[in-house]
Amino acid sequence: MDPWLVDDLLRRALAEDIGRGDRTTDAIVPPDVRLTGVFVARTSGRIAGLSVAARALALLDPDVQTTLWVKDGDDVESGTALMRVTGRGRALLSGERVALNLLMRLSGIATATREIVRKVADLPVRIVDTRKTMPLLRVLDKYAVRVGGGANHRFGLDDAVLIKDNHLAVAGSIREAVARVRRHVGPFVPIEVEVERPEDVDEAVAAGVTAVLLDNMTLSEMREAVRRAGRRVIVEASGGITPENVRAVAETGVDLISLGWLTHSVRALDIAFDLE
Fold first, then answer.
1. By CB neighbour count within 10 A (0-12 exposed, 13-18 middle, 19+ buried), where does 206 fall?
2. Per-residue pLDDT tens for 70-106?
3. Would you please indicate which residues are annotated as catalytic (active-site) residues?
């Protein structure tokens, strides 16, 4: 990940944690001492965020030396050494928590995504994320989804159109909402609309949308919605989808399955930082 994407975020994270100074480290570690530490996976999973963790330390010590033993996207077992860093002791110990927090979070997202993708790998469907990311961490969260084998939905409100239930409540109908959007964005921007009933797909297709989002439908409703869509639009399923039912959802014929919990309910991968 290029530094320009994350440096501002990392500086703010480091400032939040270190504040006016690391009282413990500054008292114990002399300023000229160099130390070496290793990031080690304590549980198995897919790794994501090594460059982000390394960059956090480099912002505190530009001369830090990094040796990678694995790369983002690798699956590791418990006990695997991931990365060695050598640099000013104060920088390593003061930046340790920010580096670990991000590495653990991103690896957790990548691992969860990997597990879901594996369940439907033989079916013509893609697993995608949502905007339910940690504020200010979206670029990292969505990166981790890709590392896990998933794909990204829209990054923000400015790069795609998704007409949701509250928009429809204001516009009064799918047709009117699509017409208003089309007048605003022009003829070339794709439009997706959220539908709650299979029969709403007919109105959405007639209105000229690019995709429909099936919101919290049952499996039978999804199959009917896919039938009505007739491959004329992209069909996305969302809401109430779990590791236990994701394959059944994929088998209805939908093109995309979006999962907000990949990023909003992250179970971090357990990773340690130990001095050699």
1. exposed
2. 999 999 999 999 999 999 999 999 999 999 999 999 9
3. 97, 132, 164, 194, 215
- Per the CB < 8 A criterion, the answer to whether 128 and 152 are in contact is yes
Percent of the chain with pLDDT over 70: 100
What superfamily does domain 3-111+267-275 belong to in CATH? Quinolinate phosphoribosyl transferase, N-terminal domain (3.90.1170.20)
CA distance 34 to 214: 56
Examine the pLDDT at 1 and tell me if it is beyond 80.
Answer: no
Task: Report the half-sphere exposure of 218 (CA within 13 A, side-chain side).
Answer: 2
Rounded distance between C-alpha atoms, residue 65 and residue 54, angstroms: 9
Tell me how far CA of residue 185 lies from CA of 95, 160, 259, in angstroms: 44, 10, 27
Quick check: pTM over 0.90?
A: yes
Contacts of 21 (CB under 8 A, 6+ apart): none
Per-residue confidence band for 5, with pLDDT thresholds at 50, 70 and 90: confident
Q: What are the b/e assignments for 74-97, b being 16+ CB within 10 Å?
A: bebeeebebbebbbbbbbbbbbbb
- 3-111+267-275 with 118-264: one CATH topology? no
Fold adopted by 118-264: TIM Barrel (3.20.20)
Q: Residue ranges per domain, the chain?
A: 3-111+267-275, 118-264
Q: Given this model, what pLDDT does residue 2 score? A: 81
Structure tokens at 223: 């199959």
